[in-house]
Structures are given as structure tokens and as C-alpha cells.
């Protein structure tokens, strides 16, 4: 370590921004200074960080003087507008949005999977889509045993993917429904209380929504393997802040459950939760607020000789966003 | 039609039994008489049927005199204890439990899929597991175009699979959690409010739970095709009474989305809900209380040449149980 850094958090008052601050604190990130940036809506707010009340400054192109690392957590539009200014001011941008993920000049990094790609950056490093990050942490140790040819994945995604207002909507709408009132969707298009629906992103020509195509394309880029075939189905379920994923992989050779368990048990960023006798497997209520991705239900795919099935849960706001961004920043120290 | 029948409903006061009564009424089942049977717990209760208050009688081996069709909806133990008595009394048993499903002498029937198997009965006809029924209604029209070789399915199952007490637990536990109280699991092992968990059935040697193995074995029996490979992952989500399923099929030849859509649109028991522009696909809140299985998100599997992906929703208490049982009884008329 040694070096201390001036860090800016863009979107500091949002659901992910708040988790970035908590994570910087909990992981003792070597901070020289911390600058909180947000839109004019948050002007005059102050946020507590390590017993100190820090002012929230209004984001502008001049916000990045003296900053070493700028963690962008304010959506793709803000990233497109201000990332270049941050880079020009000498900062390295770690961008949590989709704005630059598929740009060939921008590394897309999950530290447990391709941490070494950080070194190739030209000012911007992208943080992958949350479902992709959580899936790849779980399957990378399997890929290292034998290359993965195909992934069929169905997701069970939480409200937090739509930010604090998404979580708020699930919470208050559920209370309304329990009180006999109608569900009033605002942030999400469809009723959410005791319901589920296909992911709320635009559907492309091929019938897949944007979230699903992120899983296809980002997986190949992060794994440096354009031959991996992915069939994703992304679904929003009435859960607050952890994503779950049912994953079936097909590998070049048959990998036994014991081999998989051994590899997953010692892999970074993973906690194996796979107690068949107790019927205890990964669940959102146990992955909430956790850094590790929970991996379980590891079993042979009954339908394919070289297949393995697993079920994973990860905190969407942490490993799916804030934690992964801070881990990338740690690699820059 | 013509013939009218004396019908007994075993477990008439349970979640499925109540739906059987509603379905017999709504579908104008040709009733001569209706006998409601339940355990001693429901003694002296009366249930309304077509403006008439019918007494609930205590189930015994003598309950079936004069009965033509006995619809058993009281769990496998009751079915094992009393089905033989019903058959001996001359009734045909339509059994909603898992007791006889894999018995080679017992047809396992989804009317839209293998209705003709009803004719082979020797006194008992079994109603399949709810997830299997809903899946097979959706994939049978595809199988008829080209045989299905493999199914990878992940389920999003509702509380109603555990009966009225399961639904009640999700409802009251969610209210508790919203009020800041801890989740108190009773019927289900794990917290259910804003959570999800692997299906609450025993896990076998191969790592699959009983619900999953039902999907494997019942699919082959109903489809009369032991070569179909199935890889199921069964998950309970905080939804009240409809199951959803993310299904990926591999077929003998490539079936286009247009071919699939055409076949599904005219198939019995299916309503296609597949509006990509409006992001409107099958959802539990729209399949609740519906007879049809909703089918949508029909798209080519990006990971496999002969693959198709779809997402389906069906009412667990209706097509998953009561409706399918009544439809079987209709085939007996």
C-alpha cells in the first residue's frame, strides 16, 4: 500500500453512492481526501463519513481537480457528460454505469475474474452490470477447471437495481396491497407487490432485453472468450437488495460436483452455502449486506453430460455495484 | 354430454378443494350430487355451492357409496389411505397428490397434452405436479412441431403450493416485516417476506429436491418420451398463487419464433402474452384466477442452434391443481 488517494464519489447520495461510502470506510480504503458529488437536488446536504459531516458538492466539469480516483455512480448520462472532465483533470474514473462498458479502450473488470485488466486502462475502468458480476464470480472457478462453452441463466433480481426509489416502491406498494389498496406502479411499469415481471429494459430485435444482452456481451469481454454462449432470462422479483441466479453451465469436459465444490470453496469472493440435509442454500436475506457471493445447489446437470447447475445470491448494491467499484479502486492503489 | 355424475371432493375445505368447487360451478360440470369430505377438523362446517349450503362430512372408507368421481385434494397420505375404498365403491379417483403419479397402472394426465390416457385408467387417474402441468401445457405445441430433446427450467413458485397456510404465512409475515417485526417462519423453513429460497422438499442423492425430480419423471411419463432430458431448479418466491417458469427447450430441429408463436397461439389452454414493444409478458398478477397458462418471451436461444426460450405463468391452484382435476373429470363424463 503506502499511497493515499483523493477520491471523488459521483452520485454520493444515491443507493449505490451510499454503499460506496460505507465500503470505503469498512475496507479502510487509503483516503487522503473524499469529495462527495451529486446533482443540484442534493445541494446543501451533508453526509456522515467516519464521524465527519462532509458537504455534498454539486457535480460540474470543475469538480475533479486534485482527484486521483473518481467513482461514478450516477447513471450512464452523467458518466457520458462528466467522465472526460475527470480524466482530463488527471483522475482515473471507475464507472458503475453502462456508458463505456463495451468500449474496446475501457477495461471491464471484476477483480476476482480479470483484475489484471485494470492495468490496461486509459483513464476509465468500467464496473460490469450487477447480474454479470455476480454470475462471473461464481462461474470463474469452474471455468478455470475447464472452459465454459454455454451458460443458461435465469435471474431473480431485486428492486435495488432501480435504485433507492425502486426499493421504496416495493416497500410502500406492498404495504398498500396488504392494506387492501391497489398497487400503484411508478418507477416500475408493472405491479411489484407479490408479483414478478420481465426485466424493465428495452427489448431488442432478437427478443432479449438490454439487461440480458449485457449478460451475453459483458461475459465475453470480462472472460476474454468470445466463444462463450449465453442464454439469459432476466426477471424482477419482489426482493429488496440481492439478486439470485439459477445458472446451468456446459463445460469442455465433465467437472464433478466434488471438483466444483473444492474450487468454489477456496475461490475469492465466494461463500459456499450448500447444505443439502438442512435444505440451506443461497438466499437473498443471507446475502444482503454481504461482500461474498453465496453459491450453492451445486449438482450435475441431469440433462447434459458436461453440465453443472448452481444457484447463487449476491448483494446487488455491494458486489453488484459499490463493492466491485471500490475493489477496482483498491487495485489502483 | 348427457350423463350426470355424483362427485365427491376430498379435502373440500383446503386451498385446492375450494378451487375445485368454484371450478365445478363455473364450468357447469354435470352434477347429479356433490359430497364434501374433509378431516374431523372441519366437522360441522358448511360450504356454499350454487346458493346451497352443503355439509362437510368427515372422510371415512364409507364415504364413497354412490359416487361416480372422487376428486382427492387432501395430500398423499389421505390418498394412500382412502383411494382404494373409493375405487372399491365404484368411483373413479382423480388424485391431486403425488401418491400414485408414477404407478405404471395409473395414467398421469394433462388434458391438453395426453387426454386420451384417461381411457387407460383402472380406477385411479393422477393429476400431475403443478409445475409440470404448467410447463407441459406450454411446451406441448412446440413438441408437436419437433420433438424436445432437453429442457432447462428454473421456477418462480408461489406460496399456494403449500396450501392456504402457505399463502397466509407469506401475507402475515410480510405485514410483520413491514411493521419492523422479525419474520417468523412456521410453514416454510426460511423467512419468506421479500426473500426466496430453494423449494422446501427433501434433497435426494443427486442433489435435486423432490419437486425437481417430479418435473423430470412426470414429464417423461405424460409425454410418453423417456428420452426427454430435464434440468430443473425449483425456487419459492414471495408470490401468492401463480407459478412462473423460465424454460429453455432444445428440439430435434430448429423451430423459428414465428412457427412457435403460430402454434402456441392456437393451442388449447394457452394465452400468448408476448408484447415486446410494451414490455408486457406473463406475470403472476395476470395469471391469478385464470384458467389459461400465459406464455411469452418467445425467442431463439442465443446459446444453442435448436433452442427456444420462453417464460410462462399459470395459476398454481387452478391449472396447477383444481382446474386440471376437473378437466380430467370432464373427460370421464
Structural write-up:
The structure is a homodimer of 333-residue chains. Chain A folds into two domains: 5-128 and 321-332, NAD(P)-binding Rossmann-like Domain (Rossmann fold, 3-Layer(aba) Sandwich), CATH 3.40.50.720; 132-316, 2-Layer Sandwich (Dihydrodipicolinate Reductase, domain 2). The mean pLDDT of chain A is 97. Chain A is 31% helix and 25% strand. Chain A has a seven-stranded mixed sheet with strand order 3-4-2-1-5-6-7, with helices on both faces. Chain A has a six-stranded mixed sheet with strand order 10-8-12-15-14-13. In chain A, strand 5, helix 2 and strand 6 form a beta-alpha-beta unit. Chain A is globular and about 55 Å long. Chain A is of the alpha/beta class. Chain A has helices at 15-26, 76-88, 111-114, 130-145, 163-178, 210-223, 257-265, 284-287, 318-332, and strands at residues 5-10, 31-38, 46-49, 52-58, 69-72, 92-95, 124-126, 148-156, 197-198, 229-233, 235-236, 242-251, 270-272, 293-300, 307-315. The interface between A and B is large, with 60 and 60 residues.
Amino acid at each position: 500500500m503506502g499511497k493515499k488517494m483523493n477520491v471523488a464519489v459521483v452520485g454520493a447520495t444515491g443507493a449505490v453512492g451510499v454503499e460506496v461510502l460505507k465500503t470505503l470506510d469498512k475496507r479502510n480504503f487509503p483516503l487522503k481526501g473524499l469529495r462527495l458529488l451529486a446533482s443540484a437536488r442534493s445541494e446543501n446536504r451533508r453526509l456522515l463519513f467516519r464521524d465527519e459531516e462532509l458537504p455534498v458538492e454539486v457535480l460540474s466539469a470543475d469538480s475533479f481537480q486534485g482527484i486521483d480516483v473518481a467513482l461514478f455512480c450516477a447513471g450512464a448520462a452523467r458518466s457520458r457528460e462528466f467522465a472526460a472532465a475527470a480524466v482530463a483533470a488527471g483522475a482515473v474514473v471507475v464507472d458503475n454505469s453502462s456508458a463505456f462498458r463495451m468500449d474496446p479502450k475501457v477495461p471491464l473488470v471484476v477483480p476476482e475474474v480479470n483484475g489484471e485488466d485494470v492495468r490496461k486502462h486509459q483513464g476509465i475502468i468500467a464496473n460490469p452490470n450487477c447480474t454479470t458480476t455476480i454470475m462471473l464470480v461464481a462461474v470463474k472457478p469452474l471455468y478455470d477447471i475447464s472452459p465454459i462453452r454455454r451458460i443458461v441463466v435465469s435471474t431473480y433480481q431485486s428492486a435495488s437495481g432501480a435504485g433507492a426509489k425502486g426499493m421504496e416502491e416495493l416497500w410502500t406498494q406492498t404495504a398498500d396491497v396488504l392494506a387492501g389498496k391497489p398497487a400503484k406502479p411508478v418507477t416500475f411499469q408493472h405491479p411489484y407487490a407479490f408479483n414478478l415481471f420481465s426485466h424493465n429494459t428495452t427489448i431488442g430485435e432478437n427478443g432479449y432485453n438490454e439487461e440480458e444482452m449485457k449478460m451475453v456481451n459483458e461475459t465475453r469481454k470480462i472472460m476474454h472468450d468470445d466463444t462463450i454462449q449465453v442464454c439469459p432470462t432476466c426477471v424482477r422479483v419482489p426482493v429488496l437488495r440481492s439478486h439470485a441466479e439459477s445458472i446451468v453451465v456446459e463445460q469442455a469436459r465433465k467437472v464433478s460436483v466434488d471438483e466444483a465444490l473444492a474450487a468454489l470453496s477456496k475461490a475469492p469472493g465466494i461463500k459456499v452455502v450448500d447444505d443439502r440435509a438442512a435444505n440451506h442454500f443461497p438466499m437473498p436475506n443471507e446475502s444482503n449486506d454481504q461482500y461474498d457471493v453465496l453459491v450453492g445447489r451445486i449438482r450435475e446437470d441431469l440433462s447434459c453430460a458436461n453440465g453443472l447447475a448452481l444457484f447463487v445470491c449476491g448483494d446487488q448494491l455491494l458486489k453488484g455495484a459499490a463493492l466491485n467499484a471500490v475493489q477496482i479502486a483498491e487495485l489502483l492503489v
